[in-house]
Amino acid sequence: MLNISVVVLTCNQATYTLRLLETLTPWLKNNPDSELIIVDNGSTDNTSKIIEESGLISPSQLHYIYNAKNLGVAGGRNIGLRKASKDLVLILDNDTEVSPAAIDGLRSHIASRQNCGLCAPALISPSGDIQDSAKPFPGLGIKIAHILDRKGRSRSEEEAMKSPHPFYVIGACQMFRRSIIDEIGLLDENIFYGPEDADWCMRIRNAGYTIDYLPQYNIIHHWQRATNRSPFSPLSRLHLRALLYFYRKHHRLF
Fold it and tell me: Which domains does the chain have, with CATH numbers?
């Protein structure tokens, strides 16, 4: 059986992180040779103390890494990816809630398909609504529509959600072989906040692998779309800068 390095990035969201660990603990107890790597991107809310005092995770399975400042999504996750030592890597946002069945289902899928570069489950809201996590290329038109808070999906977004091989899946939950990192490198740290997940999946696709969306498995995601709150916020400006970099890097706008 393939063992898994679970990599979780957190920053000042101790309540969410603790909820994730409560759902992850049963799976970790049944998989003692797997590991949990928590990368703390400069939290000031006593996240590390809260997790330690919870006693949820065995010290033998837990690696807690504290960054003195927020390194962004790619920078923070790369700290965890460098530490990962198991056969597979499972990236999780700290605002997710997992089930053993979903993790085991992803593992079985990727273990039986050498051409699968990355797989992901459906993400559902706490009320049970399916979230748009399987995506087309994040073109300029789609991004402008999201900034303007357009309701509904475009045709390409509808098709991506129905496809077993969308262009990319968002980074809230992704599983891939550790060897992929050796082959294509780490996440691009020039992208502070989005679309590092699209870039990562694009590079995996370009290396000849598939991106597999598996809606028969699902996890809960407390989706927080920070960049939609204001297109002029500091985080939104960082996101826009990252998008422009992404378009220049791949010579593509649509």
Answer: 4-250 (3.90.550.10)
